[in-house]
Amino acid sequence: MVTLNVNGQTYQVNGGGLRTLAEALREDLALTGTKVACGEGTCGSCTVLIDDRPQLSCLTLLAAVDGSSIRTVEDGGRLLERLQAAFVAEDGLQCGYCTPGQLMSAVALLEREPKPDTGQIVEAMSGNLCRCGAYEGIAAAVARAAAES
Question: CA 20 to 30 Å from 63, out of 21, 71, 111, 148?
Fold first, then answer.
């Protein structure tokens, strides 16, 4: 068994074999906001915060995060709510499949750097692919959320 602190609550999940964090979040904890698009660690849709750092949950083995603090898009909080509103206002989403990962990368950035410049935003978001091409809206949304803090 693996102990996870997810969004402030402690859970025990089966961590045997090569189970990934994404599988446990979606299947065991019914936290389906975390999306798995590529399953190979190239798209960023599955990004969650592990001990406040953005990580790809589709590549993270459960055994590696035993006892860690994990935050998903379901975590809520004022910063996440502000980012969600900014994504809508700035047209930073289209199909929405990458949005949870984008949001979690943006949360990590704004917690680390509350007033990032454009270069910092682009760099922080570079690990998240948007197949719809909403990159300008995403960057504008992160800048807007930062300005509103």
Answer: 111
The answer to whether the Cα torsion of 68, 72, 74, 77 is positive or negative is positive
Cβ neighbours of residue 58 under 8 Å, at least 6 residues apart?
Answer: 20, 21, 22, 36, 38, 39, 40, 41, 46
Domains of the chain: 2-74 (3.10.20.30), 77-147 (1.10.150.120)
In sequence order, the 6+-apart residues with CB closer than 8 A to the CB of 131 are 95, 97, 98
Q: What is the pLDDT of residues 85-117, one digit of tens each?
A: 999 999 999 898 999 999 999 999 999 999 999
Q: Decide: 128 and 143 in contact? Cβ < 8 Å.
A: no
Count other Cβ atoms within 10 Å, centred on residue 139: 18
Q: What is the pLDDT of residues 40-61, one digit of tens each?
A: 999 999 999 999 999 999 999 9
Residue 143 vs residues 20, 33, 36: alpha-carbon distances, Å: 32, 23, 26
CB–CB of 9/17 below 8 Å? no
Residue 54, number of CB atoms within 10 A of its CB: 22
